[in-house]
Amino acid sequence: MTAVATIAPMPQPLHAAPNPGHAWMRALGGRFVVFDGPDGSGKSTQFRRFADAARAAGTDVVEVREPGGTPIGEKVRDILLDPANAEMTTRAEMLLYMASRAQLFEQRIAPALAAGSLVLADRFVSSTLAYQGTAGGMDEAEILAVGKVATGNRWPDLTVVFDVATDVAMRRLSPLLDRMEQKGADFHARVRAGYLSQAQRWPGRYVVVDSSVGPDEVTASLMSRVHAWSAGAPAVHR
Fold this sequence. Notes:
Layout: E1 32-36, H1 43-56, E2 61-65, H2 71-81, H3 90-114, E3 118-122, H4 125-135, H5 140-151, E4 158-163, H6 166-172, H7 185-201, E5 206-210, H8 215-232
Helix pairs in contact: 1-8, 2-3, 3-5, 4-5, 4-7
């Protein structure tokens, strides 16, 4: 009998009355927001805090991660992050990330957006541009062309980049590094530069949060920057 792949659900907080202190987060329904940044930037902690705050404000939140997020995507994730696959070429790497992304977008992201949920993604095309593009040497136009196919030309409304010096980020990583984390400090310095370049070129769709400070300070900055962005963002049309 063939085993059916399953994904462990992300832990969900208990339902509570809406928090009036974050009432502005209710306007994020129907938005597609990505949290991204170099390995060791602390984005996972902030992702959890932001998702919990949005739910406390009364916003329906759908969380996804990359690569993965679907049974097919999780199998691709295992291939991509396995240190045994050291011979994988950058082009193959990019295409595998995009394949996982295409499945995730069609199966989970697009339906959630259509239902008016806030979709929070841990990484998206911005990661491919930084890792396989700026750091890996692939042409940006090629990556964007494949990304257009994978997402049906639906791009995130906002990408939050958590920025930290490379030496600090490297010290934060677990000793049990996956295949991408093992690429070394020079590679990860190029990754950081790639994220900052994206934010500079597309300021209307990106915000940068300094994640070199304490977690509470990062959270305060995150909330402030996303709140300011949401105040000027166009209305959601579904």
